Amino acid sequence: MRKNRVATAATSVWPTNTTPNNTHSTTVAIPAVVGSSSSTCRSHGDPRRIRNCLSGRRVDRAVNKRGHITNAVLLALGLAVVLNPTPELRTAEWAVELLPPVVLGALLPDIDTEFGRHRKTLHNLPVLALFVAYPIVFDNLQFVWIGIATHYVLDVVGSKRGIALFYPYEQEYGLPIGVAVSSDRADLVTAVISAAEVALLAVLHFFVVDLTTAGVRPQVYELLPEVATQFLRVAEAGPI
User: Fold this and answer.
1) For 72-98, how does the pLDDT look when each residue is reduced to its tens digit (9 = 90+)?
2) Which residue among 14, 149, 170, 204 has the highest number of C-beta atoms inside a 10 angstrom radius?
3) How far is CA 179 from CA 141, 155, 198, in A?
4) In the chain, what are the domain boundaries?
5) What are the CA-CA distances from residue 85 to residues 75, 100, 157 (Å)?
């Protein structure tokens, strides 16, 4: 008897035929909604958020990965043109070289939706600094930092919620010009931000530093003996 009550509570009965000509109603047992109530979920508006809510997933963890991927692809292609403006094979080679690390870097911060706290654990400047240092110290993961940086920019500028740039200090920083993830203007905002980033990288490349050498590891270890020797000479000479 107890098992029957539990089974009844776990299902809902929906009449499929209740016309007067029938002497009885045919019923079909369907599973109850796993997550929140249907009316509550449908109040979110966006179909993707509704599906996440009905399936029991937390709505605030419904990350807009499409926007970040679009932003990373546009940025990688734009940067390839910046690094080689002429229509040559080298431009395509740059695009092939840049796309994987930039796109993967753009997806990396959202790992904290499952491990850590979203927009905090992996959405901060120390994490970005770590990946900026990788090409310099280990001579690998070149250009991954660009994907991470553009992810941060899109979250700070393009969305309503900011990120904890100085985590574990939990204050989130953002600009009041962003739009909601479910907004019809989200794709337009992503495209505008991507274009602005390409323009900024172009200025950086042509007037500040050659980005084609950004992934070259400096010969730090070869310089250390000479630096140490000069330091010892200055120390032995004493104060001037």
Assistant:
1) 999 999 999 999 988 888 899 999 999
2) 149
3) 32, 10, 21
4) 2-54, 64-220
5) 15, 20, 28
